[in-house]
């Protein structure tokens, strides 16, 4: 009983770590621009797919990873520059359509460049399972959890201790005041997209050996990341990370104990219950309406 | 008569289009595309009441469309119901379901509401996908032919006129609704929710009401779809389909009944037109979606209407 529970928790934390990274990506862009970027899942796919293609072309894995991350970040910045910036004053629904359009567009390009096949990467450090108090753990899961935890810490440091990070937070809080204080908010938008593309790409690369990657795999991961961000309270970075981990563990538990066909449904039921009880997410601030 | 013509100018234009379109139709495939466009248009006209007039978003409307379709398919085949009775039961069931979920979730705003409606859509689609002994699972199931008073709709041509008539009726209903006290309350709610509450409008009541109405529109179109399509599969009620409906509404023009119809037609026809360059289809589709929203954030029909009006009165 204890072993299987631990097993499910470990599986849940592994996928939860990825949801947390994607959720954090949503949060960073939301804070910089109040845009929900539905193309977030495509960053994961572009990161994973480019790494697969570059290693297949003969590049060593570390170099392929760096290049793939750079490619994804360039795509992210291009998205901000050519699709989001020109529509800055559009309302929420129009912005949602733009990012959904962007995700369809990027998915089309991925399909055209890399094809429709499902790809994978070899695990970074072998396939010998580790034994942890009776539960087994694949070394790749450790990579996923470790790299996610590292990135989350780096993000926390970036937003709390560097000038650039503080400028981004200031823009999130009050864009006009930030501009008056000399913050270049256009730069903030570009860097927000670059950062969240970076998170998506790295998440996509480390998880590819476990979940594989295809041109379509971004849809569900994107939705889960969005759910994580909303569950924690939009705009709250720590909330997104907690939301992602909770979502991952809930899913793994319901797949293990209730029904694997219904694991996604159960995750969404829990999100609905949370939202009905707390309309601004678990850690969100209460909204105030203006007349 | 003149007042009717003025008030229902859009309806008359649409009726003329529906009457004239068959002149350009060469084969059953063309009819099939137009029928699907018409069915999508019915959903979008209803959905646009919610998005364009009440200012609420739903990323789960395909679920209501799918529930209507499955209600018709299951009740007419497994239980041998009459197709009209099955359609009615589907609409009633979807109405009740929409009412039950609307009360708690319409308290949510913006992205949280998008998340909640999306979640409901995903849950319904997973349930229908998994309960294979009732729904046929991923393979889907088919419905008995649609018949009214002994006349069974079989040919594509008869379906075209049926769907055309239903679309006109839906547009007429929606236009009347918009010009009623309900419509005015909705616009007040969209403009300033707190303001509307202050002047005594029960905003929750109206939001729930319009959510239920738009869900019933979707269920109605879904029932027709089930009878027309060879097989009803879970792909018709997934997240992607919900997004397509929203895109049609926004692309055609928010708060524009005629815009909904135009949006539904263009977005249904487009993939068929682009089918010859299949590999590029999603790229072009995505580019069109981004381009329209960047250059015409109000949508196609309102932007063009504004340009025309400016030309008329310089």
**Mean of pLDDT of chain B:** 88
**SSE arrangement of chain A, N to C:** HHHHEEHHHHHHH
Proportion in helices of chain A = over 70%
CATH architecture of chain A: Orthogonal Bundle
Strand order of the largest sheet of chain B: 1-2
Low-pLDDT ranges of chain A: none
Mean pLDDT of chain A: 88
The unreliable regions of chain B are none
Supply the number of helical segments of chain A.
11
- How do the strands of the widest beta sheet of chain A line up side by side? 1-2
Q: What best-fitting shape of chain B do the alpha-carbon axes yield?
A: globular
Count interface residues per chain for the largest interface.
Answer: A-B, 49 and 50 residues
CATH topology of chain B: ABC transporter involved in vitamin B12 uptake, BtuC
Which structural class best describes the helix and strand composition of chain A?
mainly alpha
β-strand amount of chain B: under 5%
The percent range for strand residues of chain A is: under 5%
Give the CATH level 1 class of chain B: Mainly Alpha
Let me know the number of strands of chain B. Answer: 2
The N- and C-terminal alpha carbons of chain B lie at a distance of 30 Å
Count of spatially separate domains of chain B: 1
């Amino acid at each position: 009983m204890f072993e299987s529970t631990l097993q499910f928790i470990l599986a849940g934390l592994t996928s939860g770590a990825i949801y947390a990274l994607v959720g954090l990506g949503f949060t960073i862009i939301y804070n910089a621009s109040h845009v929900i970027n539905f193309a977030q899942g495509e960053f994961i796919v572009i990161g994973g797919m480019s790494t697969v293609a570059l290693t297949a072309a003969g590049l060593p894995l570390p170099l392929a990873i760096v290049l793939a991350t750079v490619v994804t970040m360039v795509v992210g910045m291009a998205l901000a520059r050519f699709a989001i910036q020109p529509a800055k004053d559009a309302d929420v629904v129009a912005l949602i359509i733009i990012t959904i359009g962007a995700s369809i567009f990027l998915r089309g390009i991925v399909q055209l460049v890399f094809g429709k096949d499902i790809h994978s990467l070899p695990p970074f450090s072998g396939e010998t399972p580790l034994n942890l108090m009776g539960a087994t753990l694949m070394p790749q899961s450790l990579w996923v959890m470790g790299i996610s935890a590292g990135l989350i810490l780096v993000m926390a440091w970036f937003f709390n201790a560097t000038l650039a990070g503080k400028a981004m937070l200031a823009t999130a809080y009050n864009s006009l005041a930030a501009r008056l204080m000399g913050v270049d908010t256009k730069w903030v938008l570009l860097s927000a997209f670059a950062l969240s593309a970076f998170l998506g790409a790295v998440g996509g690369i480390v998880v590819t050996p476990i979940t594989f990657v295809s041109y379509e795999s971004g849809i569900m991961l994107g939705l889960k990341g969005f759910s994580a961000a909303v569950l924690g309270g939009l705009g709250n970075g720590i909330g997104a990370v907690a939301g992602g981990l909770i979502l991952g563990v809930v899913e793994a538990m319901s797949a293990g104990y209730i029904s694997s066909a219904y694991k996604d449904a159960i995750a969404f039921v829990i999100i609905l219950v949370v939202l009905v009880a707390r309309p601004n997410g678990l850690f969100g601030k209460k909204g105030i309406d203006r007349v | 008569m003149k007042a009717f013509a003025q008030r229902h100018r859009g309806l008359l234009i649409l009726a003329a289009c529906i009457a004239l379109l068959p002149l350009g139709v060469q084969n059953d495939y063309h009819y099939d595309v137009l029928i699907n466009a018409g069915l999508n248009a019915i959903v979008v006209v209803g959905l646009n009441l919610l998005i364009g007039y009440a200012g609420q978003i739903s990323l789960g409307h395909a679920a209501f469309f799918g529930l209507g379709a499955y209600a018709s398919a299951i009740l007419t085949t497994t239980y041998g119901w009459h197709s009209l009775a099955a359609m009615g039961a589907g609409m009633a069931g979807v109405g009740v379901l929409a009412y039950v979920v609307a009360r708690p979730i319409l308290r949510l705003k913006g992205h949280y509401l998008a998340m909640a409606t999306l979640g409901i859509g995903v849950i319904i689609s997973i349930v229908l996908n998994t309960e294979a002994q009732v729904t046929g699972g991923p393979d889907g199931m088919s419905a008995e032919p649609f018949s009214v008073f002994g006349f069974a709709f079989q040919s594509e041509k008869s379906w075209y006129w049926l769907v055309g008539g239903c679309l006109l009726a839906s547009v007429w209903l929606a236009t009347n609704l918009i010009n009623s006290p309900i419509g005015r309350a909705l616009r007040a709610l969209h403009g300033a929710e707190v303001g509307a509450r202050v002047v005594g409008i029960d905003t929750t009541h109206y939001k729930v009401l319009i959510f239920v109405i738009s869900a019933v529109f979707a269920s109605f179109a879904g029932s027709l779809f089930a009878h027309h399509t060879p097989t009803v599969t879970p792909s018709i009620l997934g997240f992607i389909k919900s997004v397509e409906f929203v895109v049609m509404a926004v692309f055609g023009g928010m708060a524009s009944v005629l815009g909904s119809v135009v949006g539904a037609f263009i977005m249904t026809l487009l993939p068929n037109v682009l089918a010859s360059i299949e590999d590029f289809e999603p790229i072009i589709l995505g580019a069109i979606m981004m381009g329209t929203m960047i250059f015409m954030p109000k949508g196609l029909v309102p932007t063009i209407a504004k340009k025309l009006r400016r030309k008329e009165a310089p």
